[in-house]
Amino acid sequence: MEFRRLGRTGFRVSVLGLGAAGLGSGKLSEVETAKLIYTALDSGINCIDTAECYGDSEIHIGKALGRNNNQVFVFTKCGHSSVSKELDWTTQTITDNLNQSLVRLKREQLDLVNIHSCPREKLIEGSVIEALERAKEAGKVRHIGLSGDGKAAVLGLLSDKFDVLQTSLNIADQEAIELTLPVALEKDVGVIVKRPLANAVWRYGSKPDNSWLHTYWNRIQALNYPFLNHNDCFGLAIRFPLTHQIVSTALVGTLNKLHLKMNIDSVKLGSTLDPEIYKRIRARFLECSNGEWHGVG
Q: What Å distances lie between residue 195 and 102, 148, 153, 168, 183, CA to CA?
């Protein structure tokens, strides 16, 4: 497994990270969840991404890792009311989220806390960032990050308040390449890529029922990449964002151990694309998007 530096955090993280949103869905038993986590770790993955709003995901991770496992970087997020689960940017909610995450993850200090899809106006207002900075000063948090896209992500980067940006980048979502990656490089901000496979929407024979997938579905139909019929389509897709060396890790979320191993195997022999293949993917996106396809938050 290849490891890369996560910006100014100094963390050395595996180029693939485990996206743990699905671990809180209840679809796997506690034992099955632990086995999935161990499969990831045994394969060389050393970072796991979760959030306080991902059901019992943090609880499962805390139980699987225990209190003494400091070899794994755990990234979590804040910004949801513990009662309604709706986005809530009050100082009290942020503080409650962090305290809850510490307990559930069985940690004395959180490696990285990302502000979860925070609106631009709340970033400008500043109280959310201040709440996280106070937690960092108190030793509860090592590093502060921003999970977001578009203008809000640019604002966050320019504020010099964040050590990490978690953003969307894949074959159907490339706004970050010109909008945020250059700023992250200049500021030495680590980049974590979410949705690196564009939710693999090309698997569906027809438009999926889940409206959350429709933007990527529509884009993939227009892009009509020929390589999506290739046996290594998943490998080619996941290597696309990792071709950018500013990207430290790409999060793969799955509840299937075989799918997880397939993704891991796809980068073990190389995490970047052949330059010509990359150029063709990039050119096709620019042709189809005409500058109007923005990042999907």
A: 26, 12, 16, 6, 20
In a domain, 215, yes or no: yes
> What is the rounded CA–CA span in Å between residue 58 and residue 73?
13
**DSSP string computed for 131-183:** HHHHHHHTTSEEEEEEE--HHHHHHHHHTT--SEEEEE-BTTB-HHHHHTHHH
Q: How big, in percent rounded to 5, are the helix, strand and coil portions of the chain?
A: 45, 20, 35
pLDDT in tens, 60-100: 999 999 865 778 999 999 876 655 566 677 888 888 889 99
- Whether residue 249 is contained in a domain is answered as yes
pTM over 0.85: yes
Containing domain of residue 118, as a range? Answer: 3-289
The CATH number linked to 163 is: 3.20.20.100
Q: Is 294 a domain residue?
A: no
